[in-house]
Each structure stands twice: as structure tokens, then as C-alpha cells.
Amino acid sequence: MKRFVVVANRLPVDAGPGGLVSALQPITRSSGGAWVGWTGNPDERPEPFEHEGVHIHPVELTAEDVDRYYEGQSNSTIWPLFHDGVEPSVHHRPWRVAYQAVNKRFAEAAAAVAAEGATVWVHDYQLMLVPGMLRELRPDLRIGFFLHIPFPPVELFMQLPRRTDFVRGLLGADLVGFQQPLAAQNFLRLTTQLLGLRPEGERVEYEGRTVTARAFPISIDVSEIDELAADPQVQEDARRLRKDLGGDRRLLLLGVDRLDYTKGIDQRIEAYGELLADGTVSNEEAVLVQVATPSRMRVAQYQQLRERVEREVGRINGEFGDVGRAPLHYLFQSRSRAELVALYLAADIMLVTPLRDGMNLVAKEYVAARRDEGGALVLSEFTGSASELSDAFLVNPYDVDDLKRGISAAIAAGPEDLAARMRKMRETVRANDVGRWAKQFLEALGTH
Ligand code: ADP
Ligand code: F6P
Does the pLDDT of residue 189 top 50, yes or no? Predict the structure, then answer.
């Protein structure tokens, strides 16, 4: 039985890259806590085990659950709707049934490992019913919930079938955390619209309890990135990367994302293609490296994105490339943390251009890696990170001309301007480490 329990769809074991696991693993390890989640493979439930100082409690998902709860309701219904509807949200009744059943399974697993009066921290859009279910099973617990992705405007949320269930589910928590203040306000407005509640400030009374909804912008493990960036081997790898990509090339542009339609990868590549076409950059002097990790590949919208991106990469390399020298290197792969940091160090311009993103940790990792105060960050206005990193070259990724303007401005900026911008962004990121984020959340939840 544990005093601190994390509940998330994924376990921090062999997980694909993603902000959630990167953010929470260090905290759970240092508190000796337990983690309830899914291994990522269907029809598998290993016995509880220890992994890197965390007590792991696997929850089983059958192949049908993966299909309906994970790929269906979570990633084809909720994910697109919560990201401004950038792709159409798909609705199916059996998916909703599976989502509810799987949420119940997670709530029961958490109830079984949490000690009397323990703190349970539930994460993300896959598990929005868990706080309410857990409260029914274990009224003695302190329950926190954090949503890692955006929370949509009220008008969009209202499209969700069985929408009131989600609001009630979240109200099962004592503290509901969001990335942005506006998201917390949207949620509180919905409690009025759907349940007739009367929030006061950031608090609302529900079934005799007080629930608080507040923004806690997430961050990264700054020291982990800092240590990697200081490692002579990583620095050597960064130099080698530059050389391998053409030592005489003046400009290395970089994108690092899960291959997700919210990340604006195709818009970014289109803008780069236009910059090559109009001669702002040339294959002699510039190269773009796009690392795109395979993600949710059984979902149709992700397959379509992959096809769009790969077609465009082929077109650009065909049109502007030369024998032995391509203007765009596309890696449909995951990379180790050390390799990512070497790429960050090598990149003159980091392109983070999502159409919508709750936070975006890649932007913060790039900044944390640049101990040399070099490099430039081109950042979408529609990321949570943009609220903190206002010294980036901010762009509207829906507007290809504005993307091109932002990239051109980063290319044209002088070293002093770049260093001043990077210095300010580094101060912000270093002052708001993920450890501080967790501490603030848990303090507000009333347990630390
Ligand atoms: P999301 O949570 O939507 O995937 P974030 O930018 O917030 O997006 O977090 C992504 C995390 O995954 C970061 O820690 C980043 O370093 C990592 N990551 C992204 N792409 C890759 C990749 N190709 N290889 C390894 N790690 C990656
Ligand atoms: O932070 C958003 C998020 O969806 C996490 O919940 C998730 O673990 C990560 O991105 C990666 O996605 P997935 O778990 O679907 O591979």
C-alpha cells in the first residue's frame, strides 16, 4: 500500500516518448511512489514489479480495449476535439462504453494500491472519469487530476456525447489542474452550464466538497537536459552531426515531434519548401532535419498524416536536392535523450510549430540544452509554451507566410539579439523546473 500513487494510461516502462512520462517519472521515483498504468501492449498484465525506483502496477487492456478505448474514444474522439478540432472528432457508442469500463478498471487498480488517506494523482484525457469513480470507491483519498492537453472552449466541449459525465468525473478530484488559466476557466464555466454549479474564483462546491480548478504549466527536468548538454560526448556528437549534414552548411533547422497532426509538421515542411523555392534558403547552405516519432499509427488520421508528410518530403528532396545532398532529412524514428540533446546543440533554428499543443516540452528542452546561449526558437503561438517563451520567434502556423516570416527573422537575427533572447528564455525555463511544477500541484492538493 502506497501513500502516493500516479495513475496514467501509460507506464513509465518502454513507453514511447511523450511529455507525460518524461515529466512524472523523476517525481514518482523520488517519492518512492506507485504507478498504475498500461504497458502499451494488448492482452498483457505482468505482476506488479519495481522499475527504476518506481512500484509498477500494470492494468490490462485487451486488443478490443486498445481499439475502442485508446485508439477510439481517447485518440479519435477526445484528442482531436480538445485540440481545437484540427481534425474531425469521430464518435462511436461502443468506444464510450469501453472508455467507461477501462476507466473503472484503472480506478479499481488505484483503490487497491492506495493506503488509507493516500494521495492519488490521475493524469490526462484518457482517464477523465477516474477521479469520480475513485472517489466513490475510496472517499478517504486526496485525489488530484492533471490534464496535459488543452481543455477546449465551451462551445467545442459541448459537442462531446455524454459531456456531463466528463465534468462529473473530473469533479471527483479535489484539485483539477490545467496547462493554462483559460482552460481552468472553460472547465468552471461548464460546471455552471451543465450542472448549474456556482464557481467562485477558482473554487466550486460539488456534492458537499470544494473542488479547485487552476493552471499549473508543466515543465521539464532541467538538470537532466543540462547534464546531457554538458557531456563532452554529446557535444562531440553534435559536432559530428553538423559535419555529417554538410560541414559547409551554415544553417541547420530542426523539428522533433511525435508524428501527430496537432504538431503542424506538414505546415512547417511546406513553409521550408517555399523558402527553398523562393531562394530565401538554398540546399548549399541549409538543411532541415525532421525527427518524427511513430505514434498511434493504427489511427487513420495518423496514417494519412504520415502519407502527406512523406509525399511532401519526397517532393522537396526531388525538386531541390542534389546527389549526396538533400535539403530535408526525415527520420520516422524515436531517438535517445542523448541523441536528441546532440541534435538540439547542433541546430541553429528549432522549429516548434503546433496548430495546438497543451504545453510542448520540446521547446523547453531546446532552451534548456543551449548553455551556449546560441540557437533560435521559432514557436507557435498556439502552444502553452508560448505564454512563457515570449522571446522566441512567435508564429501563426496556419499562415504559411507568417511561418516563413518567423523562420526568415530567425535566420536574419544577429548573434547578440539571439543570445539576449535565449538568455531570457533560459532564465524562465530554469526557474520553472518540472520538480517545482509537481511540488506546486501537490502543495495545492494539500499533502506536501
Ligand atoms: P507530446 O506530449 O504531445 O508528445 P511534448 O513536446 O510535450 O509533446 O513532449 C514530447 C516528449 O517526447 C519530449 O520529452 C521529447 O523530448 C520527446 N520526444 C519527442 N519526439 C521524440 C523523438 N523523435 N525521439 C525521442 N524523444 C522524443
Ligand atoms: O501528453 C499527451 C500524451 O497523450 C500523453 O498522455 C501520452 O502518454 C503521450 O502524449 C504520448 O502518446 P501515447 O501514449 O498515445 O503514445
Answer: yes
Q: In what order do the strands lie in the sheet with 349-352?
A: 328-331, 286-293, 251-258, 349-352, 376-380, 393-395
Shared-domain flag, residues 201 and 228: no
326 shares a domain with 242? yes
Inform me whether the pLDDT recorded for 17 exceeds 60: no
Q: Does 335 sit in the ligand 1 pocket, CB within 6 Å?
A: yes
* Sheet containing 114-123, strands listed edge to edge, beginning at the edge strand earlier in sequence: 49-51, 54-58, 34-38, 2-10, 114-123, 142-146, 175-178, 209-215, 203-206
**What total of structural domains would you count in the chain?**
2
Domain harbouring 132, CATH code: 3.40.50.2000
Residues 213 and 235 grouped into a single domain: no
Say how far apart CA 108 and CA 131 lie, in whole Å: 11
- pTM value surpassing 0.85: yes
Domain limits for position 39 = 2-219+434-447
pLDDT value of position 435 = 86
For residue 25 and ligand 2, the question of a CB distance below 6 A is answered with no
Determine how many CB atoms are found less than 10 A away from the CB of residue 200.
Answer: 9
Task: Tell the residue nearest (CA) to atom 9 of ligand 2.
Answer: 18
pLDDT digits 0-9 by tens, 411-446? 999 999 999 999 999 999 999 998 899 999 999 999
Instruction: Please name the residues in contact with 383: beta carbons below 8 A apart, sequence gap of 6 or more.
Output: 352, 354, 356, 357, 359, 360, 363
Probe ligand 2: pick from 126, 148, 256, 260, max atoms within 8 Å of CB? 148
pLDDT tens digits, one per residue of 264-291: 999 999 999 999 999 999 999 999 999 9
Please give the number of the atom of ligand 1 that sits closest to the Cα of 291.
23
What pLDDT is attached to residue 22? 66
Helices (H), 325-399: 337-346, 361-369, 385-388
pLDDT in tens, 227-251: 999 999 999 999 999 999 988 899 9
Same domain, 165 and 47: yes
Q: Which atom of ligand 1 is nearest to the CA of 257?
A: 20
Residues 123 and 187 occupy one common structural domain = yes
| Average pLDDT along the chain | 95
Residues 171 and 274 occupy one common structural domain: no
Active site residues: 148, 357
Same domain for 278 and 388, yes or no, is yes
| Residue 221 CB less than 6 A away from ligand 1 | no
Q: Are 73 and 128 part of one and the same domain?
A: yes
Q: Which of 6, 7, 9, 263 to mutate to test the pocket of ligand 2 (most atoms within 8 A of CB)?
A: 9
Q: What is the mean pLDDT of residues 318-342?
A: 96
Cα of 225 vs centre of ligand 1, distance in Å, is: 13
